[in-house]
Amino acid sequence: MIIENSKIYFSVGLSIGSVPPNNDFNCVRNITFRNVEMFEPIKSIYIKTNPGDEGSGVIENILYENITSNNAIWWNIYIGPQQ
């Protein structure tokens, strides 16, 4: 998936995840964010983790290229638990 040439206002930014472990294997792969400008996002780049008790999950091959964040409310980059 490619997300490019965008302007985003008042958002949760470029969020991916939440990938809980699963016996069938959950994943998010091969995502590109390119030429994106954000204005007052809550979190600019947000990778949502979701721990669990069994199974597997993966987030891989994520590319952020030419990203601009103006006045992030909380964090410019946040990798952690889902809200």
What does this entry look like structurally?
- The protein has one domain.
- It has 83 residues and is mostly beta strands.
- It has strands spanning 2-9, 14-19, 26-39, 43-49, 57-70, 75-81.
- Helices cover 0% and strands 67% of the residues.
- A three-stranded parallel β-sheet has the order 1-3-5, with no helix packed on it. Strands 2-4-6 form a three-stranded parallel β-sheet, with no helix packed on it.
Short key terms for the protein model shown above:
83 residues, mainly beta, three-stranded parallel sheet, 6 strands, flat
Determine the number of helices (DSSP H or I, runs of at least 4 residues). Answer: 0
Outline, from the CA principal axes? flat
Roughly what is the average pLDDT, rounded to an integer? 89
List how many beta strands DSSP finds: 6
In short:
The chain is mostly beta strands and 83 residues long.
Layout of helices and strands:
Elements: E1 2-9, E2 14-19, E3 26-39, E4 43-49, E5 57-70, E6 75-81
Parallel strand pairs: 1-3, 2-4, 3-5, 4-6
